[in-house]
Amino acid sequence: MEAAGNGRRAAALGGLAVLPDELLCAVVDLLEPTDIGRLACVSSVMYILCNEEPLWMSKYLSVGGHLEYKGSWKKTTLSRLSLCSENSEIEQKARHFDGFNSLYLYRRWYRCFTTLSSYSFDTGHVERKDDLSLDQFRSQYDGNCPVVLGKLVETWPARTKWTIQQLVHDYGDVTFRISQRSSQKIITKLKDYVSYMELQHDEDPLYIFDDKFGESTPALLEDYRVPHLFQEDLFDVLDYEQRPAFRWLIIGPERSGASWHVDPGLTSAWNTLLCGRKRWALYPPGRVPGGVTVHVSDEDGDVDIDTPTSLQWWLDIYPHLAEHEKPLECTQLPGETIYVPSGWWHCVLNLETTVAVTQNFVNQSNFEHVCLDMAPGHCHKGVCRAGLLAVPGKSISDAENHPPGTVSRWNHSDMTRTEKRLKGSGPVRASNCVNQCSSFEFSDVHESLADQVFTYDIGFLSQFLEKGKDHYTSVWSPTNPIGQREAREWLRRLWVLKPELRGLIWKGACLAINVDKWYACLEEISACHSLPPPSEDEKLPVGTGSNPVFIVSDNVIKIYAEGGLGYSAHGLGTELEFYELLRKVDSPLINHIPEIIASGFLVYEDGVYRTVPWDGKGMPDVLAKYYPLELSFANNCFPLGLWSKQQFGMDSSTDVSNKPIWPYMVTRKCRGDIFAHVRDTLSKTDLLNLASSLGVQMRNIHLLPLPCVESLPETKDNNVKNSVPREWKQEISTLDRRKNNIKKHLANWGGTVPTVLIEKAEDYLPPDMTSLIKFVKDVDGEPVYTSPSWIHSDIMDDNILTERTPKMGSFTAAKSTGDRELEENAIHIIDFSDLTIGDPLFDLIPLHLDVFRGDIDLLREYLRSYQLPFLRGISNADISKSVQNSKFSKASYRAMCYCILHDDNVLAAIFGLWKELRTATSWEDVEHLVWDELNRYQQSPPTLSS
Question: How far is the C-alpha of 880 from the C-alpha of 869, rounded, in Å?
Fold first, then answer.
């Protein structure tokens, strides 16, 4: 309805007048700044809408970069985009128009200019305690309920040093990170941020929320120490680079704050305020605040929360809540520390300019919850945050069928009204979004669900794990605090370093990676092959690979679980064929890989595990029973070997991952240490000798002949040209598929790749992927194709074992004696389950980026020992000649193309190692810096006989 005295609106907007102002502002926000400027000239009302400060703040946030506030967001944005000169006067004279008013714009203006000084201190509903002992904290509050703690930080230097004035004096030129709802990274010098704070009138002001402040200003870490109540942090066993973000410096003005959220990964947190005042609101686990919507992706468990800003919630939603629906509240004062338990919803509003420090942690009380939240799936993640609202199709009465558990775990009388709110969540509207996310939304905060039963007890929550999902190999949510590999390393380190907690660690590992299932498999395999039973120290998998691997005495037991039964069976079959080939040709590589002791299939039937030995030859009956593969090479000696694996990779049918059968292999443990564990203890000379040894062994792999086969079947992929040799068709098909979706492929890496490079990727890649393997015409007019080689595919620092460490003897000593055999024996290569065929450059990508970490000296030493041309085929002379004639045959170009199209995020390694490339504007720049050394090697190619 048009407000009285709003006559200008209809005339100024014409047909658009039917749209509400909120929608008009949203539409304008979709425009580019130049188009907004043009639209402002259309009419008086459009001028008003196009000059709103929140609009120009939104435009700036979409660009990001280094913030230098110019007094208004319009001027700041236009300056950032170089659309105005530094000295130009954008707002010389503000234009005013009568006859137009907007309740929407007024409310937004009010939020921008309101003052919060009227918030007087009150005791709130959160208990306040001084001088709390560790035993008292653990018994009364840890994992149970929030508490405000005084006298914890009286001795901190930060209590007197962390004022705005002193921080600007000491660190004014230091750059800090800004946290805001923006896809772009925003940074600012502290002195520029303080200038912004003093000038701004924003509804949701920018907020310094920097998790890297300890790196940019290490002196700040000396100004405080973790309070004694929170010093147990089970993430401490990880290296700093491995553990998730855990500490933040927080600086913000009045009206800034943190909107409703649950801390990442269900960790707990403490927050100490050094100056200013903060207003806190909290709800217990499972009680979604009014006005907040939780989305959990059905596909990967990604959690997304839609919530108003903290100021908007306090002004627009809080006043309308019934008394029994209101949250726990408190005002935090300087020198006070608030503890927020795992799973608790909280919202923070800065009542004045504040400085604080906060840390998240995992301790014994929340360890199982953190492990549960890591597990793949979506239902349990929703239940942990939204209670039974997250259960699809569950009615209110269904709650009665759940074990009641302990609904209340709070030990003091002030929590009575909180327990009522836990039961009294508003009605739910469950729906499926367009993007296949489950949405759980409160539609009315006034009705009560008195029958709802919910408990944050781990036994209750774990009921909502997806029973058929393999927690070890399934895709993990991108919102998990750490990835799958890091989580497995974390659990293993805890097991080794904290034996007193093994009972708890075992429970967490069962939730996160199904360790109980894999341990049962290990026991059966050990018994079948008369291996020593695993000791207590050997119960958890080792390494960070995609398959469960156990070390028992001197044996390595690997269970193939990745990718489903078809993929894993072909992985074992191809690996067994590869070992047979090494013995057949008497390859020296055989001395640098593990010795196979046993292999076969593990089957789960009628609640019992049993083993079926298999050496890769012939088709086992048990596999045909559970997964009748259509094999084109059933009569081959190795029916699940390389060529069958290639054909399987071309099949578009979906593999099945929940069959009760798993391939396995037992090998003798190689001598030495995993390179990733001892890298930092080795000298540069040792690393050069390691690179040299790798060059020799990769040469041995790439020189191996491919298995004989009478004929290859026709591919099922109609998109691959018939002229492409059949041994190349799977690789070309894969590259074509990724190129056709290259923008989406690169965008999936979550901001790793600069936007300008994503836009240019399609033009950089060859129009025809066969150009990377097909070169000049030979004398008969036919194209010349390179020959594929065996490819390891996963030469990473955790798949290389070094037999010598500084304690065991130096590589240098071996080289100085001239004993080449001694030098070569310094390494072993493990994990051949991803064997395939393709361009040898594929193996060089993980070597250079992961093993060598971009060190050009190591790459040169590797190439010196490798001594093979990158391009090989029947007509080697024509291939060598083509190197001079085509950019597609340049080794640097091909390597760069393979990086762009890689199945793993190798580009993150590139932009991490060469930070200057984050501002690169062309792929040619990246190619030149990372891979140009390959061209120098290629221009004087060695011969196969060298």
Answer: 9
Distances (CA, A) of 709 to 641, 724, 727: 11, 18, 11
What amino acid occupies position 554? D
Distance CA 366, CA 188 (A): 35
Which residues of 575-720 form beta strands (DSSP E)?
A: 596-605, 608-613, 661-668, 673-674
Contact 938, 869 (CB under 8 A): yes
Task: Return the half-sphere exposure (C-beta side, CA atoms, 13 A cut-off) of residue 785.
Answer: 14
> How far is Cα 408 from Cα 12, in angstroms, rounded to an integer?
59
Displacement of CA 562 from its chain's centroid (Å): 19
The b-or-e profile of 35-50 (16+ CB within 10 A means b, else e) is ebeebbeebbbbebbb
Question: Which two three-digit tokens encode residue 67?
Answer: 């913030």
Distance (Å, rounded) from C-alpha 843 to C-alpha 182?
Answer: 37
Give 49-54's long-range contacts (Cβ < 8 A, gap of 24+). Answer: 49/21, 49/24, 49/25, 52/25, 52/105, 52/108, 53/112, 53/201, 53/202, 54/108, 54/112, 54/202, 54/203
CB 730 within 8 A of CB 649: yes
Spatial CB neighbours of 739, under 8 Å, sequence gap ≥ 6:
762, 765, 769, 901
Q: Residue 775 belongs to what H/E stretch? A: strand 774-777
What does residue 732 show for φ and ψ, rounded to 5 degrees?
Answer: -65, -40
pTM: 0.83
Burial of 281 (0-12, 13-18, 19+ CB in 10 A): buried
Name the nearest CA neighbour of 303 among 380, 393, 211. 380
Instruction: Indicate the Cα dihedral angle 529, 530, 536, 541, nearest 10°.
Output: -20
Q: Of 4-18, 159-173, 284-298, 479-493, where does mean pLDDT reach its minimum?
A: 4-18
Host H or E run for residue 656: none
Exposure letters 708-739 (e unless 16+ CB within 10 A, then b): ebeeeeebebeebeeebbbbbbbbbbbbbebb
Band of residue 607 on the pLDDT scale cut at 50, 70, 90: confident
CA distance 561 to 479: 24
CA separation, residue 711 to residues 129, 495, 577, 632, 732 (Å): 79, 51, 18, 10, 19
Q: Provide the greatest CA pair distance for the chain.
A: 97
Give me the pLDDT at residue 302, please. Answer: 85
Three-class secondary structure of residue 341 per DSSP: coil
Residue type, 412: H
H or E segment and range at residue 672 = none
The closest of 757, 717, 736, 719 to 901, measured between CA atoms, is 736
195 pLDDT higher than 90: yes
pLDDT tens digits, residue range 399-419? 333 333 322 322 222 322 222
Report phi then psi at 40, rounded to 5: -60, -20
Question: Would you say 851 and 796 are in contact if contact means Cβ atoms under 8 Å apart?
Answer: yes
pLDDT tens string 74-133: 999 999 888 876 555 555 566 777 778 899 999 999 999 988 877 766 767 899 999 899
Torsion of CA 856, 858, 859, 863, to 10 degrees: 140
CB atoms inside a 10 Å sphere around CB 913: 17
Q: Which two tokens stand for residue 649?
A: 């990779």
In three-state form (DSSP H/G/I as H, E/B as E, the rest C), the secondary structure along 295-336 is EEECCCCCEEEECCCHHHHHHHHHHHCCHHHCCEEEEECCCC
Inter-helix orientation angle 21-28/103-113, to 10°: 70
Query: 351-396 pLDDT, tens per residue?
Result: 999 999 999 999 999 999 999 999 998 889 999 998 888 776 553 3
3-state secondary structure 383-424: HHHHHHHHCCCCCHHHHHHCCCCCCCCCCCHHHHHHHHHHHC
Q: What is the pLDDT of residues 762-775, one digit of tens each?
A: 999 998 888 888 76
CB 879 within 8 A of CB 873: yes
pLDDT exceeds 70 at position 69: yes
Count the neighbouring beta carbons within 10 Å of the beta carbon of residue 930: 24
